[in-house]
Specification:
InterPro entries: HSDR_N, tRNA_endonuc-like_dom_sf. By secondary structure, this protein is α+β, with helices and mostly antiparallel strands. It has a single domain, classed as tt1808, chain A, CATH 3.90.1570. The strands form two sheets. The protein has a six-stranded mixed sheet, with helices on both faces. The chain is globular and about 50 Å long. The model has no long low-confidence stretch (mean pLDDT 92).
Length: 147
Amino acid sequence: MTNLNLPKYSFRIKNKENKLYIFDRIRKKDLILTDEEWVRQNFVSFLHEDKKYPLSLIAIEKQCLVNELTKRTDILVFDKTGAPHIIVECKAMHVKISQDVFDQIARYNMTLKAKYLVVTNGLEHYYCQMNHDLKQYDFLKELPNYS
């Protein structure tokens, strides 16, 4: 798989019926290893191993209702009270991070009201802190560690 702009992590990857699968330690099952899944699994490892967020507070493909449509967040991290804390939108490495991607995650956050938003394609990462009162976000150099 492509090297990402993240530390190197160890994964359980296997070949079944000529398809590569990666073990998702959050959902505890093997998933087809697409480019986007590679980014997602690496970012989950980054959140857990480098930023110290407990796996128990991380959800993948969590449903949310946006304008009466059911959508799924790529990664949703909760705070200690169970409230949404970080929403992460993952794209494949070849997908350019555009305003459309930021608009997508901002729509999710109208419902979820997370404090931080992250957009990544594994090569570029954008971290934002929300100001819900002003309905805007400020870019950060990095995502804060779990505390």
